[in-house]
Design brief:
355 residues; alpha/beta; Rossmann fold; 5-stranded parallel beta sheet
């Protein structure tokens, strides 16, 4: 309570002083003004939380004074006091935004109780403002580590057991993997490598977001993106393939820029694998650390396809191709036996760029 500031506005000096003494004794920081004009001048220098105002002030009256003070501090609470308090005056006071009204002569206990009741609203408002600030800071921090859409879901849900969140969903998975990265890592200073990866991941995140996907995670020199949930999409496969083409083009621009400084960048490429099907999306992990991610055969297939690419190639499964065939030109490839996948996978490729 000690941090809450009150201004008492009354042209009767003795009344103002008695009010100040009673409120100061209760732990408030109290200032006095003897006219509305003086109160407004003081409010320009000090942010008050509440004003105790006499209705019959010389010059601008108490109602007008409160209106002027609220222009400076919109959240200001008010207590109107008067020696001749009428029903009409009480109604007007409520309409002007006063929280309480009191009749003169003022009783110290009644004044303190009225001020406490009015300031409860201010305390709640300040606590809510601080809570919103903390939530915003938490959201910003979380969004550094996961997609904003996922952060919103986790912050808005109320389940007691976070490990229960998750479900099987039809999703499209995009896996982008920098080819020949080990060769690059042996020839480029670590600080430069870090800067390159930062630019690469920023680019991938922007492209994925522009096609309504979410960036699930970064994995060393690779990125995993998801299309179809938690942001619903009618054409997740087409969005994923379109994003892959954009990523390839922008990666080539980035690679050429860095090749001007370091020749080994001429030796790298980007492989992208795209798969579609039912996968688990939700929290995975231990009681100490959880990861909101995707899990399933289609995730593994997308990753294996990216690893099986050559040059600036995009490989997609047959399921993905059939949905985009009317829009995207792709070439049928031989069935592939991917590591860890039992059956051969029929694939289609897009050579987005000439290496």
């Amino acid at each position: 309570m000690g941090s809450l500031k009150i201004i008492v506005v009354d042209d009767e000096v003795m009344v103002a002083d008695l009010s100040r003494m009673a409120l100061t004794h209760s732990g408030y920081l109290v200032s006095c003004a003897h006219s509305g004009e003086q109160a407004i001048e003081m409010a320009m220098e000090t942010a008050f939380d509440l004003a105790v105002i006499d209705a019959m002030l010389p010059g601008i009256n108490g109602m007008e004074t409160f209106e002027g003070l609220q222009l400076i501090s919109p959240s200001l609470q008010g207590v109107l006091v008067s020696g001749d308090l009428t029903v009409e005056m009480v109604i007007e006071a409520v309409e002007k935004g006063f929280s309480r009204t009191l009749t003169k002569p003022l009783q110290p206990l009644s004044l303190v109780q009225a001020v406490q009741a009015a300031l409860n609203k201010t305390v709640i408002q300040k606590e809510n403002t601080e809570l919103k600030k903390q939530v915003k800071q938490m959201r910003n921090l979380i969004e550094h580590y996961m997609a904003p859409e996922v952060a919103a879901i986790l912050l808005n849900r109320q389940e007691l057991n976070p490990r229960m969140r998750g479900a099987m969903r039809p999703l499209t998975i995009l896996f982008a993997d920098i080819r020949n990265f080990s060769f690059l890592a042996q020839r480029i200073p670590v600080t430069e490598l870090r800067d390159f990866l930062t630019e690469f991941f920023d680019m991938v995140a922007d492209v994925v977001s522009s096609w309504q996907g979410i960036l699930d995670k970064f994995m060393g020199d690779a990125a995993l993106a998801v299309f179809g949930a938690p942001v619903p999409q009618g054409h997740a496969n087409l969005s994923a393939v379109s994003a892959a083409i954009d990523i390839q083009k922008k990666f080539e621009d980035l690679r050429k820029q860095w090749a001007f400084r370091f020749e080994p960048f001429l030796e790298i490429g980007l492989g992208i694998g795209i798969s579609s099907g039912n996968v688990y999306q939700g929290n995975i992990g231990s009681s100490r650390r959880l990861d909101f991610t995707v899990l399933g055969a289609e995730v593994n297939i997308a990753q294996r396809l990216a690893s099986d690419t050559t040059g600036s190639q995009i490989l997609m499964t047959e399921t993905v191709y059939h949905e985009v065939a009317d829009t995207i030109t792709a070439r049928e490839e031989k069935e592939k036996k991917l590591r860890g996948i039992q059956e051969k996978i029929k694939t289609y490729s897009i050579k987005a760029l000439a290496q």
